[in-house]
């Protein structure tokens, strides 16, 4: 008999009415499929609120205690959702991550799942119960509560689908699937019926915050079909699979706002310097995104790169230290940078896509500050205030609105 894993995001369980709606959907699935395991996030806004309450106490909360605190959010929704199922006459039981031995490493606030002991879940399924598991949390080898990084419930769902050999993994959210562009910006954006893991990975990391990046990586590695759908409608959603639609050319346009650009000026151009700079930044656990180095002039180059805007405060002191050490001239930084990107596996076989993107932005008089590419993506850093214009015109340029 097939087993279904469903995950409901925070906006789907934000209040009592919504929780009851989710319970009715689960019951329907249960009647059809019989075995259902459900992963839920904390009620919408809860994790943010908990996090800010930590910062009201101290600017530097211990990460172990942050995990202890944040894990309580999901405990609210699993218990309430289970009660809602009970009141519909549906047998159900809730579990925290530690209770079902979602074992993780010790990297607090961004832990990785090592294994899941499915014994207890299977026993409850056998008794005919719906099993509700708290997303986003686990327990480390040291028996401490850990969390999996923001949006981590998606990863819990995929990991459970793998461990339980589920027939499918459905991610329920407040949008109807994955779109060719953010529908809030492009009113003609179309829902994609299918998308490949690789495209979805680019989209997740590029700022389309529908699923956590890690969950898609995991789904790809174990070939789990991910079905992204809306909690509030019965539309078919988007299937994330190996192949996707294989649309010719570009599949979607995406953007990521809140980026910061850092330039280290007059960097001595010799072996080992880039390594020294980026190792220092990596040690601070900061992700560097686009990097450009100017041509060397009299043995000196300028090195620019982007990071998440929220990391700027943490990054600058470290970068200033390394700037001094390598005897570069100085550092400048600016916020208000955005990245717009076009993504598509079909780009591989279509020459001239980059040129078309740049011409399109030029026509809109949008200056490109940095460029980076992969096999299936081209990204440009631009001024944040031009994002809407850029996304709209690129969406039109690549014929995505038909
Ligand atoms: N509640 C957590 C968050 O807000 C995990 C999740 O929603 O997936 O990031
Ligand atoms: Mg989420």
Structure explained in plain terms:
The chain has helices at about 15-35, 45-55, 65-85, 120-125, 155-165, 195-205, 215-220, 275-285, 310-325, 355-365, 385-395; strands at about 5-10, 35-40, 90-95, 100-105, 115, 130-135, 135-140, 145, 170-175, 195, 225-230, 240, 250-270, 290-295, 300-310, 330-345, 370-375, 375-385. By secondary structure, it is of the alpha/beta class. The protein folds into 2 domains: about 5-175, Carbamate kinase, CATH 3.40.1160.10; about 255-395, VC0802-like (2-Layer Sandwich), CATH 3.30.2130.10. The two termini are about 40 Å apart. The mean pLDDT is about 95. It binds aspartic acid and magnesium ion. Magnesium ion binds near residues 10 and 41. The site of magnesium ion has 4 residues, from loops.
Throw out a few tags for this protein.
binds aspartic acid; Carbamate kinase; 35% helix; binds magnesium ion; VC0802-like; 402 residues; alpha/beta; 11 helices; 6-stranded antiparallel β-sheet
CATH class of the largest domain: Alpha Beta
Please state the second-level CATH architecture of the largest domain: 3-Layer(aba) Sandwich
Low-confidence stretches: none
Number of domain units: 2
Biggest sheet: strand arrangement: 3-6-2-1-9-11-12-10
β-sheet strand percentage: 25-35%
Count of strand segments: 18
Short description:
By secondary structure, the chain is α/β, with parallel strands linked by helices. The chain has helices spanning 16-33, 46-57, 63-87, 119-126, 153-163, 197-205, 213-222, 273-283, 312-325, 353-363, 387-397, and strands at residues 3-8, 35-40, 92-95, 102-104, 113-116, 130-134, 137-140, 145-147, 168-173, 194-196, 226-230, 238-241, 252-268, 288-293, 300-308, 330-343, 370-374, 377-383. It has two domains: 3-174, 3-Layer(aba) Sandwich (Carbamate kinase), CATH 3.40.1160.10; 253-397, VC0802-like.
């Amino acid at each position: 008999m097939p087993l279904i894993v469903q995950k409901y995001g925070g906006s789907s369980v934000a209040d009592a009415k919504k929780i009851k709606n989710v319970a009715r959907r689960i019951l329907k699935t249960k009647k059809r499929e019989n075995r259902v395991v459900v992963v839920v996030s904390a009620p919408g806004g809860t994790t943010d609120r908990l996090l800010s309450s930590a910062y009201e106490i101290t600017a530097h909360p211990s990460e172990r205690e942050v995990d202890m605190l944040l894990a309580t959010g999901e405990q609210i929704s699993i218990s309430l959702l289970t009660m809602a199922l009970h009141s519909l006459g549906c047998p159900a039981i809730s579990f925290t991550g530690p209770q079902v031995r979602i074992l993780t490493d010790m990297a607090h606030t961004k832990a990785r799942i090592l294994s899941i002991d499915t014994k207890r879940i299977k026993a409850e399924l056998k008794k005919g119960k719906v099993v509700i598991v708290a997303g986003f949390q686990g327990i480390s080898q040291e028996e401490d509560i850990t969390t999996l990084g923001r949006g981590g419930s998606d990863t819990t769902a995929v990991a459970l689908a793998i461990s339980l050999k589920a027939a499918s993994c459905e991610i329920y959210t407040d949008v109807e699937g994955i779109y060719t562009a953010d529908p809030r910006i492009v009113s003609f954006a179309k829902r994609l019926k299918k998308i490949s893991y690789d495209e979805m990975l680019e989209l997740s990391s590029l700022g389309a915050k529908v699923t956590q990046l890690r969950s898609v990586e995991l789904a790809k590695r174990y070939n789990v079909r991910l079905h992204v759908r809306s909690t509030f409608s019965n539309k078919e959603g988007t299937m994330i699979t190996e192949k996707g639609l294989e649309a010719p050319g570009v599949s979607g346009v995406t953007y990521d706002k809140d980026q910061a650009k850092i330039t280290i000026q007059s960097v001595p151009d010799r072996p080992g310097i880039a390594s020294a700079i980026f190792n220092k930044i990596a040690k601070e656990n900061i992700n560097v995104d686009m990097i450009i180095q100017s041509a060397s002039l009299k043995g000196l180059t300028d090195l620019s790169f982007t990071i998440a805007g929220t990391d700027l405060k943490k990054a600058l002191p470290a970068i200033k230290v390394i700037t001094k050490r390598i005897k570069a001239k100085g550092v400048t930084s600016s916020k208000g940078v955005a990245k717009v990107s076009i993504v598509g596996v079909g780009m591989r076989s279509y020459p001239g896509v980059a040129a078309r993107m740049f011409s399109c932005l030029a026509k809109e008089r949008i200056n490109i500050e940095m460029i980076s590419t992969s096999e299936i993506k081209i990204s440009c850093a631009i001024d944040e205030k031009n994002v809407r214009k850029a996304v709209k015109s690129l969406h039109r340029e690549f014929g995505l609105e038909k």
